[in-house]
Amino acid sequence: MGAGRAGRGLARAFREGGVDVVGVHGRRQFVDGPITISTGAIPPAIGSADVVLVTVQDRQLPAALAELRAAPLAPGAVILHASGSAHPRAAMQQNRAQGHPMGTFHPLVPIPDPERAPALLRGAWVGVDGDLEAVRVARDLAIRVGAHVLPIPREGRSAYHAAAVMASNFPTVLAGLATSLMHRVGVEESTARSAVRHLMRAAVTNLADAEPDAALTGPISRGDVDTVASHLEVLAATPELDAVYRALSVAAIPFAAAQGTDPAALARISELLAAHPVPLTSVD
User: Fold this and answer.
1) Which residue ranges make up each domain of the chain?
2) What are residue 24's DSSP bridge partners?
3) d(CA 129, CA 134)
4) Strands 102-107 and 51-54
5) Which strand ranges, in their side-by-side order, compose the sheet holding 51-54?
6) Which CATH superfamily is domain 5-168 in?
7) Which of 92, 97, 185, 220 is 20 to 30 A distant from 85 in Cα terms?
8) pTM of the full predicted structure?
9) Cβ–Cβ under 8 Å, residues 117 and 12
10) Tell me: the pLDDT tens digits for 75-84?
11) Exposed, middle or buried, 127 (CB in 10 Å: 0-12/13-18/19+)?
12) Residue 128: which of 76, 77, 84 has the closest Cα?
Protein backbone atom coordinates (compact mmCIF):
# COMPACT_ATOMS: atom_id res chain seq x y z
CA MET A 1 0.00 0.00 0.00
CA GLY A 2 1.80 3.05 -1.37
CA ALA A 3 3.07 3.19 -4.95
CA GLY A 4 5.99 5.57 -4.65
CA ARG A 5 9.55 4.60 -5.50
CA ALA A 6 9.94 2.52 -2.34
CA GLY A 7 6.64 0.66 -2.76
CA ARG A 8 7.20 -0.17 -6.41
CA GLY A 9 10.84 -1.06 -5.79
CA LEU A 10 10.00 -3.41 -2.93
CA ALA A 11 7.27 -5.06 -5.02
CA ARG A 12 9.87 -5.80 -7.72
CA ALA A 13 12.33 -7.15 -5.16
CA PHE A 14 9.72 -9.38 -3.53
CA ARG A 15 8.69 -10.83 -6.88
CA GLU A 16 12.30 -11.57 -7.77
CA GLY A 17 12.61 -13.24 -4.36
CA GLY A 18 9.71 -15.57 -5.06
CA VAL A 19 7.07 -13.72 -3.03
CA ASP A 20 3.55 -13.71 -4.51
CA VAL A 21 2.68 -10.00 -4.71
CA VAL A 22 -1.12 -9.81 -4.81
CA GLY A 23 -1.16 -6.14 -5.79
CA VAL A 24 0.20 -2.62 -5.33
CA HIS A 25 -2.24 0.14 -4.35
CA GLY A 26 -1.57 3.86 -4.71
CA ARG A 27 -3.08 7.27 -5.30
CA ARG A 28 -3.11 7.02 -9.11
CA GLN A 29 -3.55 4.12 -11.48
CA PHE A 30 -0.73 3.30 -13.89
CA VAL A 31 1.47 0.47 -15.11
CA ASP A 32 5.11 0.37 -14.03
CA GLY A 33 6.81 -2.45 -15.91
CA PRO A 34 5.46 -5.71 -14.52
CA ILE A 35 3.43 -3.92 -11.83
CA THR A 36 -0.12 -2.60 -12.24
CA ILE A 37 -1.07 0.01 -9.66
CA SER A 38 -4.65 0.05 -8.39
CA THR A 39 -6.24 3.21 -7.01
CA GLY A 40 -9.35 4.46 -5.27
CA ALA A 41 -10.97 2.08 -2.80
CA ILE A 42 -8.73 -0.75 -1.64
CA PRO A 43 -9.57 -3.67 -3.97
CA PRO A 44 -11.14 -6.89 -2.65
CA ALA A 45 -8.01 -8.76 -3.78
CA ILE A 46 -6.30 -7.54 -0.61
CA GLY A 47 -8.32 -10.20 1.19
CA SER A 48 -6.06 -12.88 -0.30
CA ALA A 49 -2.89 -11.29 1.10
CA ASP A 50 -1.16 -12.73 4.17
CA VAL A 51 0.87 -9.53 4.59
CA VAL A 52 0.20 -5.87 3.84
CA LEU A 53 3.27 -3.60 3.64
CA VAL A 54 2.48 0.11 3.98
CA THR A 55 5.03 2.26 2.13
CA VAL A 56 3.41 5.70 2.31
CA GLN A 57 5.11 8.82 3.67
CA ASP A 58 5.35 9.05 7.45
CA ARG A 59 2.66 11.72 7.80
CA GLN A 60 0.25 9.57 5.77
CA LEU A 61 0.74 6.43 7.86
CA PRO A 62 -2.10 6.96 10.39
CA ALA A 63 -4.58 7.58 7.56
CA ALA A 64 -3.36 4.52 5.66
CA LEU A 65 -3.79 2.35 8.75
CA ALA A 66 -7.31 3.74 9.13
CA GLU A 67 -8.08 2.74 5.53
CA LEU A 68 -6.86 -0.77 6.27
CA ARG A 69 -9.17 -1.01 9.27
CA ALA A 70 -12.08 -0.59 6.85
CA ALA A 71 -10.62 -2.89 4.19
CA PRO A 72 -11.55 -6.56 3.67
CA LEU A 73 -8.29 -7.94 5.07
CA ALA A 74 -7.84 -11.65 5.66
CA PRO A 75 -8.22 -12.67 9.32
CA GLY A 76 -4.84 -12.45 11.03
CA ALA A 77 -3.13 -10.74 8.09
CA VAL A 78 0.11 -9.10 9.20
CA ILE A 79 0.47 -5.36 8.65
CA LEU A 80 4.00 -4.00 8.29
CA HIS A 81 5.07 -0.42 7.63
CA ALA A 82 8.31 0.67 6.00
CA SER A 83 9.02 3.75 8.13
CA GLY A 84 12.08 3.87 10.34
CA SER A 85 10.86 6.86 12.34
CA ALA A 86 7.05 6.98 12.36
CA HIS A 87 5.45 4.72 14.93
CA PRO A 88 1.81 5.80 15.48
CA ARG A 89 1.09 3.64 18.50
CA ALA A 90 -2.59 4.58 18.87
CA ALA A 91 -3.41 3.84 15.23
CA MET A 92 -1.38 0.63 15.25
CA GLN A 93 -3.15 -0.53 18.39
CA GLN A 94 -6.53 -0.14 16.67
CA ASN A 95 -5.39 -2.36 13.78
CA ARG A 96 -3.91 -4.80 16.28
CA ALA A 97 -7.25 -4.90 18.11
CA GLN A 98 -8.82 -6.19 14.87
CA GLY A 99 -6.51 -9.20 15.04
CA HIS A 100 -3.69 -8.00 12.80
CA PRO A 101 -0.10 -8.32 14.10
CA MET A 102 1.77 -5.04 13.55
CA GLY A 103 5.42 -4.47 12.77
CA THR A 104 8.15 -2.62 10.89
CA PHE A 105 10.01 -3.55 7.69
CA HIS A 106 12.46 -0.66 7.18
CA PRO A 107 14.96 -1.11 4.33
CA LEU A 108 18.26 0.55 5.23
CA VAL A 109 18.93 1.46 1.62
CA PRO A 110 17.84 4.44 -0.50
CA ILE A 111 15.63 3.47 -3.44
CA PRO A 112 15.75 6.33 -5.97
CA ASP A 113 14.89 4.01 -8.86
CA PRO A 114 12.39 1.12 -8.44
CA GLU A 115 14.14 -0.91 -11.16
CA ARG A 116 17.35 -0.95 -9.14
CA ALA A 117 15.69 -1.97 -5.87
CA PRO A 118 16.23 -5.76 -6.18
CA ALA A 119 19.99 -5.28 -6.66
CA LEU A 120 20.24 -2.61 -3.95
CA LEU A 121 18.45 -4.78 -1.39
CA ARG A 122 20.72 -7.78 -1.89
CA GLY A 123 23.25 -7.59 0.92
CA ALA A 124 21.52 -4.57 2.50
CA TRP A 125 20.02 -4.46 6.00
CA VAL A 126 16.36 -4.24 6.98
CA GLY A 127 15.27 -2.90 10.36
CA VAL A 128 12.47 -4.94 11.94
CA ASP A 129 10.40 -4.74 15.10
CA GLY A 130 6.85 -5.26 16.33
CA ASP A 131 4.66 -8.16 17.39
CA LEU A 132 6.21 -11.62 17.36
CA GLU A 133 4.41 -12.81 14.21
CA ALA A 134 5.08 -9.51 12.43
CA VAL A 135 8.80 -9.75 13.19
CA ARG A 136 8.85 -13.33 11.94
CA VAL A 137 7.23 -12.29 8.67
CA ALA A 138 9.47 -9.23 8.29
CA ARG A 139 12.56 -11.41 8.79
CA ASP A 140 11.34 -13.86 6.16
CA LEU A 141 10.70 -11.07 3.65
CA ALA A 142 14.17 -9.64 4.28
CA ILE A 143 15.74 -13.04 3.66
CA ARG A 144 13.67 -13.47 0.46
CA VAL A 145 15.16 -10.27 -1.02
CA GLY A 146 18.69 -11.24 0.06
CA ALA A 147 18.97 -8.73 2.90
CA HIS A 148 20.26 -8.97 6.47
CA VAL A 149 18.04 -8.33 9.50
CA LEU A 150 18.64 -5.58 12.06
CA PRO A 151 16.36 -5.62 15.14
CA ILE A 152 15.33 -2.02 15.90
CA PRO A 153 16.02 -1.20 19.60
CA ARG A 154 12.67 -0.77 21.31
CA GLU A 155 13.64 2.39 23.22
CA GLY A 156 16.11 3.70 20.65
CA ARG A 157 13.99 4.05 17.54
CA SER A 158 14.64 7.76 17.00
CA ALA A 159 18.39 7.36 17.48
CA TYR A 160 18.37 4.36 15.13
CA HIS A 161 16.64 6.41 12.45
CA ALA A 162 18.89 9.43 12.98
CA ALA A 163 21.88 7.15 12.40
CA ALA A 164 20.27 5.83 9.23
CA VAL A 165 19.68 9.37 7.97
CA MET A 166 23.30 10.32 8.68
CA ALA A 167 24.57 7.32 6.73
CA SER A 168 22.10 7.49 3.85
CA ASN A 169 21.19 11.14 3.25
CA PHE A 170 24.18 13.17 4.39
CA PRO A 171 26.75 11.68 1.97
CA THR A 172 24.50 12.94 -0.83
CA VAL A 173 24.47 16.39 0.74
CA LEU A 174 28.25 16.34 1.16
CA ALA A 175 28.70 15.30 -2.47
CA GLY A 176 26.62 18.26 -3.58
CA LEU A 177 28.50 20.69 -1.35
CA ALA A 178 31.93 19.41 -2.40
CA THR A 179 31.00 19.55 -6.08
CA SER A 180 29.68 23.09 -5.67
CA LEU A 181 32.84 24.25 -3.90
CA MET A 182 35.12 22.81 -6.60
CA HIS A 183 33.00 24.33 -9.34
CA ARG A 184 32.95 27.70 -7.60
CA VAL A 185 36.72 27.99 -7.81
CA GLY A 186 36.94 27.05 -11.48
CA VAL A 187 36.68 23.26 -11.86
CA GLU A 188 34.30 22.30 -14.68
CA GLU A 189 31.09 21.07 -13.05
CA SER A 190 30.93 17.62 -14.65
CA THR A 191 34.60 17.06 -13.81
CA ALA A 192 34.04 18.14 -10.22
CA ARG A 193 31.03 15.85 -9.93
CA SER A 194 32.92 12.85 -11.28
CA ALA A 195 35.95 13.52 -9.10
CA VAL A 196 33.84 13.84 -5.95
CA ARG A 197 31.88 10.67 -6.71
CA HIS A 198 35.06 8.65 -7.26
CA LEU A 199 36.59 10.02 -4.07
CA MET A 200 33.50 9.14 -2.06
CA ARG A 201 33.35 5.63 -3.56
CA ALA A 202 36.98 5.11 -2.57
CA ALA A 203 36.30 6.32 0.98
CA VAL A 204 33.36 3.91 1.34
CA THR A 205 35.46 1.08 -0.10
CA ASN A 206 38.07 1.74 2.57
CA LEU A 207 35.36 1.34 5.21
CA ALA A 208 34.60 -2.15 3.89
CA ASP A 209 37.78 -3.49 5.48
CA ALA A 210 38.49 -1.07 8.33
CA GLU A 211 36.82 0.67 11.25
CA PRO A 212 36.26 4.44 10.94
CA ASP A 213 39.16 5.28 13.27
CA ALA A 214 41.47 3.26 11.02
CA ALA A 215 40.01 4.37 7.68
CA LEU A 216 40.12 8.11 8.41
CA THR A 217 42.63 10.01 6.26
CA GLY A 218 43.26 13.69 5.59
CA PRO A 219 44.58 16.69 7.51
CA ILE A 220 42.93 15.93 10.84
CA SER A 221 44.18 12.35 10.74
CA ARG A 222 47.68 13.77 10.14
CA GLY A 223 47.33 16.54 12.70
CA ASP A 224 48.00 19.05 9.91
CA VAL A 225 47.21 22.35 11.64
CA ASP A 226 48.27 24.59 8.75
CA THR A 227 46.04 22.83 6.21
CA VAL A 228 43.00 23.01 8.48
CA ALA A 229 43.71 26.72 9.04
CA SER A 230 43.88 27.31 5.27
CA HIS A 231 40.58 25.51 4.78
CA LEU A 232 38.89 27.62 7.43
CA GLU A 233 40.27 30.78 5.87
CA VAL A 234 38.85 30.04 2.44
CA LEU A 235 35.52 28.77 3.82
CA ALA A 236 34.95 31.89 5.92
CA ALA A 237 33.24 33.52 2.94
CA THR A 238 30.59 30.78 2.82
CA PRO A 239 29.09 30.36 6.31
CA GLU A 240 27.04 27.28 5.41
CA LEU A 241 30.12 25.38 4.19
CA ASP A 242 32.19 26.69 7.10
CA ALA A 243 29.61 25.33 9.56
CA VAL A 244 29.55 21.88 7.93
CA TYR A 245 33.36 21.69 7.75
CA ARG A 246 33.76 22.70 11.40
CA ALA A 247 31.09 20.32 12.71
CA LEU A 248 32.45 17.29 10.87
CA SER A 249 36.06 18.17 11.68
CA VAL A 250 35.24 18.34 15.38
CA ALA A 251 33.59 14.93 15.07
CA ALA A 252 36.71 13.57 13.33
CA ILE A 253 39.09 14.49 16.16
CA PRO A 254 38.30 11.47 18.41
CA PHE A 255 38.91 9.15 15.45
CA ALA A 256 42.25 10.82 14.78
CA ALA A 257 43.15 10.53 18.47
CA ALA A 258 42.40 6.79 18.31
CA GLN A 259 44.89 6.59 15.42
CA GLY A 260 47.59 8.03 17.66
CA THR A 261 47.74 11.49 16.07
CA ASP A 262 49.82 14.04 18.02
CA PRO A 263 47.58 15.28 20.87
CA ALA A 264 49.15 18.76 20.77
CA ALA A 265 48.31 19.10 17.08
CA LEU A 266 44.74 17.93 17.66
CA ALA A 267 44.40 20.41 20.53
CA ARG A 268 45.49 23.23 18.23
CA ILE A 269 43.05 22.08 15.55
CA SER A 270 40.28 22.03 18.17
CA GLU A 271 41.10 25.64 19.04
CA LEU A 272 40.91 26.66 15.38
CA LEU A 273 37.59 24.92 14.92
CA ALA A 274 36.12 26.51 18.03
CA ALA A 275 37.15 30.02 16.96
CA HIS A 276 34.59 32.25 15.29
CA PRO A 277 35.13 32.31 11.51
CA VAL A 278 36.80 35.44 10.21
CA PRO A 279 35.56 36.57 6.76
CA LEU A 280 38.16 36.89 4.02
CA THR A 281 39.39 40.43 3.29
CA SER A 282 40.65 41.58 -0.09
CA VAL A 283 44.26 42.63 -0.50
CA ASP A 284 44.99 45.55 -2.85
Assistant:
1) 5-168, 170-205, 210-284
2) 37
3) 8
4) unpaired
5) 51-54, 78-81, 102-107, 125-130, 148-151
6) NAD(P)-binding Rossmann-like Domain (3.40.50.720)
7) 97
8) 0.85
9) yes
10) 999 999 999 9
11) buried
12) 84
